[in-house]
Amino acid sequence: MAIWNLASLTELFAADPPALGDVDVTVDGDVIRVTLKEKGHLDVFVAAGGDQILASVMLAPAAAVPRREAFERLVLKTHKLVPLSTFGISIVNGEEWYELFGSLSARSSAEVVVEEIAVLAANAQDAATLIEEWRNGEIAA
Q1: Residues 109-125: what's their mean pLDDT?
Q2: Model pTM?
Q3: Which InterPro entries did the record assign (predicted)?
Q4: pLDDT over threshold 90, residue 39
Q5: Which of 116, 107, 103 is nearest to 51 (CA)?
Q6: Given 3.40.50.10420, 3.40.50.11720, 3.30.1460.10, 3.40.140.10, which CATH number is that of 6-135?
């Protein structure tokens, strides 16, 4: 079984797999940006290295989320309810951002790679809703 790399993943996403809908694909260095147009132009960043593919969605600047400690505690308590994705904090241009990410084997089939990206995108939309509800005080810790 072949191992996915930057070029082969770019080709896969550029073919507009039906499960992802209409996408734009750009490459910046070692990272592919897959913009899911039908999901509000959601950007999924994908990288392949060694035996692993990593996919990530930046959700919101951490500074924009009130009561961060309580929010992070909520996320840690409930993250098991988000299938195939994990919450994290990454630094983007010197600023902390909440992110949702997932990883899979670089030996996965094309169908599995596309499915994982689709699931991550759906989970990211749910996570963005969670963050917005938290900001608006609709969810209590």
Answers
A1: 96
A2: 0.92
A3: DUF2170 (IPR019231)
A4: yes
A5: 107
A6: 3.30.1460.10
